[in-house]
Amino acid sequence: MKGKRFVFAKHFDGVPKKSDFELVEEEVPPVKDGEVLFQALFISVDPYMRPYSARIQTGTTMIGEQVARVVESKHPGYKVGDNVVAYFGWRTHTVLNPDKNINPLDNKPSKPYILPDFGGVSLSTALGVLGMPGNTAYFGLTKLCEPKPGEVLVVNGAAGAVGSLVGQIGKILGLRVIGFAGSDDKVKLLKEKYNFDAAFNYKTKDVTEALKEAAPEGVDCFFDNVGGVMSSAIISCMKLYGRIAVCGSISAYNDDPKKPTLAPIIQPSMIFKQLKMEGFVVSRWLNIWQEGIAQNLQYIKEGKLKYEETVYEGFEKIFDAFIGLFKGENTGKAVVKI
Ligand SMILES: NC(=O)c1ccc[n+]([C@@H]2O[C@H](COP(=O)([O-])OP(=O)(O)OC[C@H]3O[C@@H](n4cnc5c(N)ncnc54)[C@H](OP(=O)(O)O)[C@@H]3O)[C@@H](O)[C@H]2O)c1
Prior knowledge:
Number of domains: 2
Mean pLDDT: 96
Number of strands: 18
Oligomer: single chain
Low-confidence stretches: none
CATH architecture of the largest domain: Alpha-Beta Complex
Order of helices and strands: EEEHEEEEEEEHEHEHEHEHEHEHEHE
CATH class of the largest domain: Alpha Beta
Largest sheet: 7 strands, mixed
Bound molecules: NADP nicotinamide-adenine-dinucleotide phosphate
CATH superfamily of the largest domain: Medium-chain alcohol dehydrogenases, catalytic domain
Distance between the termini: 16 Å
CATH topology of the largest domain: Quinone Oxidoreductase, Chain A, domain 1
Helix content: 10-25%
Radius of gyration: 20 Å
Strand content: 25-35%
């Protein structure tokens, strides 16, 4: 049997190019005692892959999480038909001893996790609302923004995997939610499907003007997915004692590190409005990971949390899916169906 994988062939220079990857087809090795053969069902593409790529060695399989099914097992903990979520990278087939799998992001052991029955919810959600992005939204908002009912929450990247959940969880918690996204269709979705109180297309509407209209008294909580000029503008509109959760800075991921984006100074707002700003990596909540997933699943079952996926069909489409993140092609979680 043949398997395919994408090798990270060249470090990115600016926007990633298809030629930075090499598609390799190779024989899937036999399964030895203690090993399992996993077949990918869905592969995730995520913005973090761009900044993290600086740490990846060329010649290795491109990093990433996937939902895979056990097709052969010589390991007592895994049986044929089990579905797992695991850091196997951009590959169709993986043969390994699950006890020895290493997550290349932190070089720590990372055992493939056998997924429970999601009760009719697609398995792909283990890469989105019921996985890392869902927990990023849930923990990032609830732990760092300290949201209180009646407060004003702003989120950018608001129609994406994380942002769309942040806004909806904010609504569930009783906040007034304002979102920024990159197209009129996304803005419509935020207002009509996700019930945001206000939403704006940041490509056509000045952010400061938008907040003057939608939050004349100022912003209490800001969940930042974008960074740069837009974030400086939002921070300048915050209220006294506002809280900022710094989740991502996608606007600068493809920048030349020697010529970084310059944005207006935020220190005067930080000082005079006595703001609290904290960056995070979602893995800090690994010890309570399942708590976030259970809560988001509960919200889905109660009809309070909706989600979108942009599904690319076919293993060869991974690059298009990945680059689509930087062009705003996706609405909700971008995944590749294998
Ligand atoms: N800290 C953590 O642990 C953690 C975990 C997960 C994700 N993140 C970060 O959270 C952010 C969102 O991740 P995600 O997985 O939910 O991705 P996503 O929002 O589903 O996809 C990326 C979106 O970013 C927007 N975008 C791209 N380039 C932009 C630019 N120059 N300016 C403004 N917006 C731009 C696009 O939407 P528009 O059409 O609206 O432009 C695009 O659809 C990323 O910054 C990511 O790195 C952090």
